[in-house]
Amino acid sequence: MDVVTMLFMSLVAAAAAAGFLAFEWRTLRNRVLLFWSAGFAVIVLGSSLSLLRPISFLVGVWVANGLLVVAHLLFLFGVARFTGRRIAPLWWGLLLPWAGLLLLPAGLDPTPVFAILNSALVALVALRAAHGLLSRAGAPFEERTAASDGLGFVFTVHGAFYAAKALLVPLPGAFVSIVGFKGLLIQVSLVEGIVVEVLLALMMAAAVRRRREEAMTALAERDGLTGLFNRRAFESRAAGLLGTMAARQEPGALLLLDIDRFKAVNDSFGHAVGDRLLVTLAEVLTKVLASGPAEGREAGPQREAIPARLGGDEFVILVSGLDEAAIRDLGAAIRVRMAREGGRERPAGATVSIGAALFAGGCAKLETLTALADAALYEAKRQGRDRLQVRRLAQPAERVSGRRQPDPAPLSSGRGCCA
After folding, report:
1. Strand (E) positions, 220-290?
2. If we measure between CA atoms, which residue out of 147, 158, 38, 29 comes closest to residue 83?
């Protein structure tokens, strides 16, 4: 296949990639796709202008190959936006050395210099894009997926190819004529360009789509006000954690919590204040669960915790690896912190009652633990509120009575290690 035909194929592939990503943007509405689509559109323009190189060296070579560097800079800034990593605008300064090529002496053969500098600049930008997608150092990129890693791998291979190309240009016969499309590296570059254009477009769209799918999944699992897991997500994750705890014979507890006199807060101060109290309690749970063991206590087994909002002012935590003393420390930390931070939203402060169902390890059903914790919470309310009441799961599990009234429907999932 002749070089002009391959160049035309590369042009068509780039045009298809630009159109494909623009269409994906209409569906996904992610501006990253516009950066990448614009990059491919610039490649289309550069490839079109390269056909003029027998007529105009300035347009067909200098402008056309410079646009290839511009396209990769657009790819890089799209990657930066996608990953949330900062890229200095000074990267556009890479175009200055390319502009300096116009100062080459008239009698010098420009082929090696143009080819080496173009390949080196493209390699540098492509490898920087790969680093942004694959590196775990620096600013965190928490939304890495297999698709984004695949995109990073394509940029890595593409950058490595152009780095090797820069080193091979001086070899005799590698670039015979940059104007006449003669030389082995020109042919190989066109083939590589066609393949990479297709792969980049597919991986770019896949990376953005995957992120959107994960965001939608997370949204469906989260409580809209507090950001904690909702009831359905809690039931699903609790079943898995209970199974793991049973296999490891780990102790743990299920805690039910609610804000004391929450209805009175809503009636007296308004629902906006009530909502802020709910958010405050969610933040307190997150902070306390993320902290280490209480001062003076040795670190026990590594704990796993699943906090969630069940509805209204009722929250739940399933936590593993803690004995009764540690559970009491945890409850105390929650109550103390809530009393301090909840006072910012309510002049009289805010207190929390907690009912805990403890189990020493082995089989425990979620519905049984919920009923037991609910009974403990009722007892904490009856004894004056602002306290933790503990009940221990008997072996074998006994039916629990004495549920508080009125009471929302208990967690319906009977799934667990015994289900």
Report:
1. 252-259
2. 147
CA 335, chain centre distance (Å): 32
HEC letters along 286-334? HHHHHCCCCCCCCCCCCCCEEEEEEECCEEEEEEECCCHHHHHHHHHHH
State the Cα–Cα distance between residues 192 and 77, nearest whole angstrom. 22
- The pLDDT tens digits for 196-255 are 999 999 999 998 888 887 777 777 888 889 989 999 889 989 999 998 888 888 889 999
> What digits encode the pLDDT tens for the residues 271-326?
888 888 899 999 999 999 987 655 444 444 457 899 999 989 999 999 998 888 99
Residue 35 structure tokens = 């950066």
What length is written for the chain?
419
0.70 exceeded by pTM: no
The identity of residue 249, as a single letter, is: Q
- Would you call the peptide bond into 172 cis, given omega within 30 degrees of 0 as the criterion? no
The CA distance from 332 to 411, in Å, is: 25
Measure the CA dihedral 373/376/380/381, to 10°.
80
Residue matched to tokens 């290690």? 417
